[in-house]
Structure formats: C-alpha cells, structure tokens
Design brief:
The complex is a heterodimer. By secondary structure, chain A is α+β, with helices and mostly antiparallel strands. Helix content of chain A is 25%, strand content 35%. Chain A is elongated. By secondary structure, chain B is mainly alpha-helical. Chain B folds into two domains: 67 residues, no CATH class; 217 residues, MetI-like fold. A two-stranded antiparallel ribbon of chain B has the order 1-2. The chains are: A alpha+beta, B mainly alpha. At the A-B interface, strand 6, helix 2, helix 4 and helix 5 of A face helix 1, helix 11, helix 12 and helix 16 of B.
C-alpha cells in the first residue's frame, strides 16, 4: 500500500475551560515519521486520538491523502495504533492478536496465519505466536502490538508513547526496531512521546507542542541547533541562561563575548538572558587567586561545583560570581582540569544565540 | 528482518520465568506429617461434621428402612414419579437461564457504556442496583401483582394479552423480569469487579482501531475477558432462582422451590428425599456452570503452553 499523506488543520479541542488543542496545524508527508513532543498536558495525545478517530475535534479537519476523514469513525479509518499500555487482547494468542484485524476483514484463515507469521518475524518475535500476552514480556507485548497494528496494512501508523512502560534497555532496542520497521515499510507514522531523546533519535521531524499549539516542527538537528523559540530551546536538550546586554540590533554581549542574535531581537541596551547549550561553552581552568582570578570583575569566572561523567563527555557545573549556574560539556579526558572548588572561566562559542527577557 | 533482534537483545527482552524454583524435593512421610498443622485439621473436621453430618444423616434416613433392616431407594423413585416434579424442575431451569440471559443483555452494555463514557454515573447506578437488597420480595411482589392487574378488566386489549403472556403457567415471563431485578446487586458486583480487572478503554480502542464494530467489540473482545465476572454472576443467579419461593408462590407459579413446599411434603422419607435432591440439584447445576467456565479457562492455558 503506498504511503499516505496526513494533514491536521486548525484542530481545536476543549475539555471545559481547558483548551487541549488550540488551532493545531501539522502535515506529514507520505512515509514520514513525525514525533509529537511536548510536556504533559500540551495536547499531543489529544491530537493523536483525534487522528485515530477516538475523539472528535471541536473545530478543524483531519485529512488523509487530501480527503477529510474528520467525521469517519475509528473503525473505518484504516489506521494502526500502538498504545502506551499493553493493549493486547488477553484471551488471544500473539498470532491471534496479530490476525484480529484481518479476521474482521474476512481474510481467509491460511492468509491470516501467513501474514501473522510474517509480521511476528518482522518485529523479531517469530516463534512466539502461540503464546498468550501474559506469557510475554512488556517489550514482546509491544512488538506484538506493533505487528497487530501493521497487519491490516494501515495507511498511517499511530504510536502513543509505546515505549514509556518499558525498562530502559528494552526501550532502546524497540526504539531502533520501530524505526527500522517504519523505514522498511515506508509507512507514514505519527509518534507521540514526552521523551525528547526518543523523538530526536527516531523522527524525520519533531513537532514540539505547547499549550495546544505547535511551537516548531523541524528536523531533529535543526530543532536542536536552531530552535525557533525560547520554549523549544529550553525544552529540547539542556540550556543555560546567562545574563547579557544587547549592544546592537542583532548583537548581544555575554561573558565578555559578542555573539549574533537569532530570533527575537530586543532594542540595543536591553538587559537579556542569553540561551547557550552546554556544548557551546568553552571552559578554561584558572589558578585560584591568580591575577586572572583576582581580576574580580570578570563575570565569566566562577567556581566549579560538580563534574558529572557522561561517558565521552563530562558535564561541569560552574557557579558564576552573580550566582548563575552554568553547565558546560567538555571531553572527559579534560575533566581532571576542573576539580570541585576549582576556578574556571567560560567562553561562549561564536554561534548565533537566542535571547529572552530576564 | 528476521535478524532484527540479536541474541543479546532478545535476552534482555525476555519474560521472567514463571517459577524459578526447581521441582520439589522428595520428603519423607514423617517429615511431611511433622509439617501438618493439627489444629487446622481439627477445625476442618469440625466444620465437615457440622455441614456433612445432617446431610449424611438425611441420606441414611432416606435409603435405610429401619423397620425392614434393608436399604431402598424407593423414596427417590416416588419422587421422580410425583406429579409436577419434572415440570417444576424444567421450569426452574429455564427460568434461571432466561434470567441470566436477560441480566447480561441489559447489564453488560450498560456497564461498559458507563465505564467508557459516563464514569460519573457509576455511583448512581450502583446505588440503584443495590435497591433490591433493601426492598423485601413481598413488597416487590405486591407491586408486581398490582401492575399485572391493570389489564384484567379490559379483555381483548393489548394490556390483557400482555398480562396473560406474562403469567403463562407453563413459562411465566414475569418471573425472569422480576428475578433480573432481584439478582441485580450480585450481578452488578460480579460484573463490576470483572470490568475493573481489565483495561477496558484500551481494549475497546484497540479493537475499534482495527476495524471492529461495537457488537464485535462486545462479543469478541469484552465478553471473553469478562468471563470470570459473567460466570460468577450466572452462578449467583442460578442459586437465587433455584431457591426462590416467595415471589413465585405469591404470584401463583410452581417452580421447584414452590413444588417442594406444596407437593413434596408427603409423609415419612419423601420430604427428606425432596430436600436432599433439591440441594444436590442446585449443587449439580452450580458445579456444571463452574466446571464449564473453568474448563474453558484451562483450555486457554493448555493451548498457550
């Protein structure tokens, strides 16, 4: 089945006074995997449920290959969905679960069996078809759920935080497998998650939502490196806020360095907070009570508080004289230069930055 | 794609073994006996004597003729030949079945709808379902009698015909309708517990998303997963219908419980044989229902092994 394009336009949904969706627009190209990412209550699950047909929007449309499917019932949308909680039918075996949708479509028994076996193999649990859900681990159950969703050859695959109930190791495995299966089949996929690592590692594009609206939808690298808003910048990855001053319409001075400004540009002279990624900050160890340290007025000098080993990199937390805590990433082989209590000077990398009002 | 999962991955994603312990080690008889809690055995014996003593005495009384000093099953033979016995048993059996069917046809969709769409109504419905516990069967029957009397003065009207059908002596339709109200508290509880044990919303949405219509969702997804609750409700309904006397008697019908009182009270061994047989009959039906339900569950386990 050729992949279908999915379009959500001006979706609105309220629960009493709470606006779960407030004019959401989003388009998925055929075969694309888009992750809906956002904090709890931002409306991402509501959006997915509206696409699945489990909820009706107060306003707006869901279009599949250009056709308006908003009034179509969930049973007639031909969408496969994997749920957060284990959703296998407990009274059916794994193979029977996978074949459930085919049985409803009156597919002949031999074809059903063959398709179930094919899909169980696809998701990596061939040979488990005769087992009941309670005899499978959480990861295996979600694989069966994925196979069941794919068995009906859906036009769109919907994933509602399918990994959140799994332990960390299984989550990593299944994450890769879902992506590989999705690429193999070329199926249009909408994936809801609150885990930014999942979203960034799996999706072609990540749509960050906030208060029922889309903040930014972009490729993971772009989202991380060139966030469109301060919310996206701070929600995706770790972000530092340093005090700075606008010295020109598109230049800010922070920690003794002048940097170009992206996004919103306050008027020159405005005090702002500059958003900097930990990897965009260079650290230089300085001798305590040395001339450089005694300079005192240098706002970029602080005291090392902690150094957290993260494998290839170590994240060093430095508290500046004005009380600001800054996190900087450096290669782990340099970590010994920054013992707790030591003094360090930070230097922002010369990249465009976002600024926000303090 | 078969090689998607490496051995390492598969090992990490494997269910915990159901029981880590090995086969039980052989123990000597003395060791086993030393572990027996004798006070438990004593309690069990006391309870067994209390429960089984009267039954065995009754059985002895009905099968042993003390005057002739010989055993005889004659009282049971008289019982099966007694007028109305088989008719009343058959009627009771069909009353029980129709009550169970009516109960679940009404209750299952309603409770599923409440849990899915109107969870705030659950408390209200539960309160209503408990009403039969506080309304005496006599009061209920008085009300039913009044309603049944509405059509009597208007022969030929639809009310009259409906009254006649409801009070058909061979199968009084009014009784399953009243019994369905009587068993409501028990059926509600049993079904509610079963519904709480499953993730109803997810199961329904999973089935709907795969293309199932609402009837298919009910029949192929929900009912199999509510089997324990349905079975429990059915057993309670059976027990109630087999023992119900007041309503049937006041309304003038003769199911088994009424027949026992009206026609099964001859002299000598016959009344005792009737009592024993009614107990055995009720147990047999209950065991049959439990056995059938249990066997289906076992079949599921066996198939999965």
């Amino acid at each position: 089945m050729p992949a279908a394009g999915l379009e959500l336009s001006a979706l609105r949904r309220s629960y009493g006074a709470v606006h779960a969706l407030d004019g959401l627009d989003l388009a998925l190209a055929p075969g694309e995997l888009v992750a809906l990412l956002g904090p709890s209550g931002c409306g991402k699950t509501t959006a997915l449920r509206i696409v699945a047909g489990f909820e009706r929007p107060d306003a707006g449309q869901v279009r599949l290959d250009g056709a308006d499917i908003t009034p179509v019932s969930a049973a007639k949308r031909d969408m496969g969905m994997v749920f957060q909680s284990y959703s296998l039918f407990p009274h059916l075996t794994a193979a029977e679960n996978v074949a459930f949708g085919l049985r409803l479509r009156k597919t002949a028994a031999p074809q059903r069996k063959a398709r179930a076996e094919e899909l169980l193999e696809l998701v990596g649990i061939a040979g488990h078809g005769a087992r009941y859900p309670h005899q499978l681990s959480g990861g295996q159950q979600q694989r069966v759920a994925l196979a069941r969703a794919l068995a009906i050859r859906p036009k769109v695959l919907l994933l509602d935080e399918p990994l959140s109930a799994l332990d960390a190791k299984v989550r990593l495995q299944l994450r890769d497998e879902i992506r590989r299966v999705q690429l193999d089949l070329g199926i249009t996929t909408l994936f809801v998650t609150h885990d930014q690592e999942e979203a960034l590692s799996m999706a072609d594009r990540v749509a960050v939502m906030r208060s029922g609206q889309l903040e930014q939808c972009a490729a993971p690298a772009q989202l991380y490196d060139r966030p469109a808003t301060a919310f996206v910048a701070e929600f995706v990855g770790t972000m530092n806020r340093l005090r700075g001053t606008m010295i020109d319409l598109d230049v800010v001075e922070v920690a003794g360095r002048r940097l170009p400004v992206d996004g919103e540009r306050p008027v020159p002279g405005t005090k702002v907070e500059v958003l900097l990624r930990p990897e965009a900050i260079e650290l230089e160890a300085i001798e305590p009570d040395s001339a450089a340290d005694r300079a005192g007025a240098d706002p970029a000098v602080g005291t090392v508080r902690t150094a957290t080993f993260l494998g290839a990199i170590t994240r060093v937390a430095v508290t500046l004289e004005d009380g600001t805590e800054v996190k900087a990433d450096l290669p782990s082989h340099r970590a010994s230069e920054f013992p707790a209590g030591g003094r360090a000077r930070l230097t922002p990398a010369p990249r465009p930055v976002l600024v926000v009002a303090p | 794609m078969a090689g998607l999962v490496t051995d390492t991955l598969a090992a990490a994603d494997r269910p915990e073994p159901a029981g880590a312990a090995g086969p039980p080690s052989a123990r000597s008889l003395a060791e086993r006996l030393s572990r027996v809690r004798w006070w438990r055995v004593l309690m069990l014996a006391v309870v067994a004597i209390y429960l089984l003593g009267p039954l065995l005495s009754a059985l002895w009384f009905t099968v042993y003729n003390a005057r002739l000093h010989r055993f005889s099953l004659a009282p049971y033979g008289q019982l099966f030949g007694a007028s109305g016995f088989l008719t009343s048993v058959r009627m009771t059996f069909f009353l029980a079945l129709s009550t169970i069917a009516l109960e679940f046809v009404l209750l299952v969709p309603a409770m599923v709808a409440i849990r899915l769409r109107l969870p705030r109504l659950r408390g209200v419905v539960e309160s209503i379902a408990m009403v039969p516990l506080v309304v005496s069967p006599v009061a209920l029957t008085a009300g039913v009698s009044t309603v049944l009397g509405w059509g009597l003065n208007d022969q030929g009207s639809w009310m009259f015909r409906l009254d006649a059908d409801l009070q058909n002596q061979s199968f009084p339709l009014i009784l399953p309708l009243v019994y369905a109200i009587l068993v409501l508290p028990f059926a509600f509880r049993a079904l509610d517990a079963a519904l709480r044990a499953v993730d109803l919303k997810t199961l329904v949405e999973a089935a709907r998303g795969l293309g199932a219509s609402w009837p298919v969702v009910l029949w192929r997804v929900l009912l199999p997963n509510l089997r324990a609750g349905l079975l429990s409700g059915a057993v309670l309904t059976l027990a109630l219908v087999f023992g119900e006397y007041t309503i049937a008697s006041i309304l003038g019908f003769v199911p088994f419980a009424v027949w026992i009182v009206q026609d099964g009270q001859g002299s000598g061994q016959l009344p005792i044989a009737v009592s024993l047989l009614s107990l055995l009959l009720s147990w047999a039906v209950l065991f049959l229902v439990s056995f059938l339900g249990g066997r289906r569950a076992a079949a599921v386990t066996d198939r999965s092994a």
